[in-house]
Amino acid sequence: MTQEDAPAHAPIRAHNPLPAQDLRIGHGYDLHRLEPAPPAGKGRPLIVGGIRLEFDRGPVAHSDGDVLLHAVTDALLGAIAGPDIGQLFPDTDPAHAGEDSSRYVAEALRLVHEAGYAPVSLDATVVLERPRLGPSKQAVRENLARLLAMPVDRVNVKGKTHEGVDAVGEGRAIEAHCVVLLARASGA
Ligand SMILES: [Zn+2]
To answer: Hey, is 68 helix, strand or coil?
Structure first.
């Protein structure tokens, strides 16, 4: 039967003939308030994706406040239906004060591997009014690829402003969104 002859509401296929691929998708989101650096405020140095950005404001956080690495961590954990970042690394635990967030990514990746998966694609968006992410974007991509043991061409990072509106647009906060695709690791 040609496409024209098929009833409008007939399902194209009753059964998907493609071999089922064992894929998982995860989404992560994070936001931190930005405050002036000490002594005027409580802002930490601004670190995004493990890369230091020069700015006179920084995140208020228990850890180092790396908004992108927190979103990446939650995306990895979400893809394996694991605990979230706050459950794994409570911000009430003095052991995590000022902690390098790449350790969170490393632990999430360990759990992903333990579950039998490996990340195959990652796309992230950082929303901040200032400074511009553009000049640091490639360094952030390369650092994420290194942390996740992925080829750089499977890791993407975009920077956006919030068009001057709301807390992010007024420079009072920074946000990150991340999606990650996992595939069953060979031999798992
Ligand atoms: Zn965070």
So the answer is: helix
